[in-house]
Design a protein that fits this description.
Length: 347
Amino acid sequence: MRFLCSYSLLAIAGTVAAIPRIKEQTSDGPFPTLTSTGTGGFNPSGTARVSFPSSSGSSTDGNDTGPLNIPGSCLKKNQIAVGWLPSAPEELAQITSTVGGASACFYGQYSQIKGNPYDDSQLTQVVDVVKKSGAIFIPSVMPTIPLSEVTAEVASQVATSMAKFVEQGIEVWLRFAHEMNWYVTDGTYHGSAGEFVTAWKNVANAVQKNPVTAGKVKMIWSPNNVGGNSQKLISDGWWPGPETVDLVAIDIYPDPGTSFEDKFGDFYKTFSVGFEKPFVIAETGSDKSDATAKKEWLEQISSAQAKSVAPNYVGFSWFEYNKDGTDFRVATGGNEDIARSVLASGS
């Protein structure tokens, strides 16, 4: 197995720090092909539950906790929903213009739990932009306090923060403590796999106990790239179990020349098919200066082939940042032709 150097992207106080990390590359062969039941549901043979909205704007998730509510008019390519992690709220308008006026399906934003009480100002600063866009809000809430200190009290504060968005009519998919398997090794998070699972369950339970967020906020479990050894996430204790997970995701920044199947196949089979959960790419991009490499990866993750081999695949969020000279952008900053050529036609 070959090891690749990529980046972990951490937002601190409104900025993003690039942290080198080691990632694994693997090729697992094609995914198992899932066939639609026509009713949006799984059956024991592993058929797909994920469907895109009808005129009502609802689709069904993999845990029967409620509709995914992907906006019917947002940008999709080959029935794959397209979203963004913009470096600043005002950039969303430019991104939308670049792709022909189609609105984002997802809007991602970072926030840290630095103490008790939890200061959610990094999230609330974008509430108006998210509401106007109609996008699903995917807050990445990162506990930089010890995981053992994400108590029921702190978790309740996180749920209260999510309620501020739900009260504005915004669909929320909470990405709590993402890349946990990586961030405990670099000092961003502090604690063990067991402490992560306890913190995760505290937050999931708080969301369900809050009268505003109960049944409305989805929980995204989102580890870092593990190459072809996704079972290790289970054996090492990072998987909290299917009961509190609504969607599964993974963050990958690949080297050029790798395919959607190469990078996501093992994880998809283990967690999306294995536990009957919708699959999203919660954060991805290309840190290569070569525009061709960026375009090729954007084409891979929005391709008809990706949707064909992974019917549970809902969509992706692109990391639209230029950080410390590393330019991930495809829709702003002079790189507009990349996103325009791949995504502007939609469908």
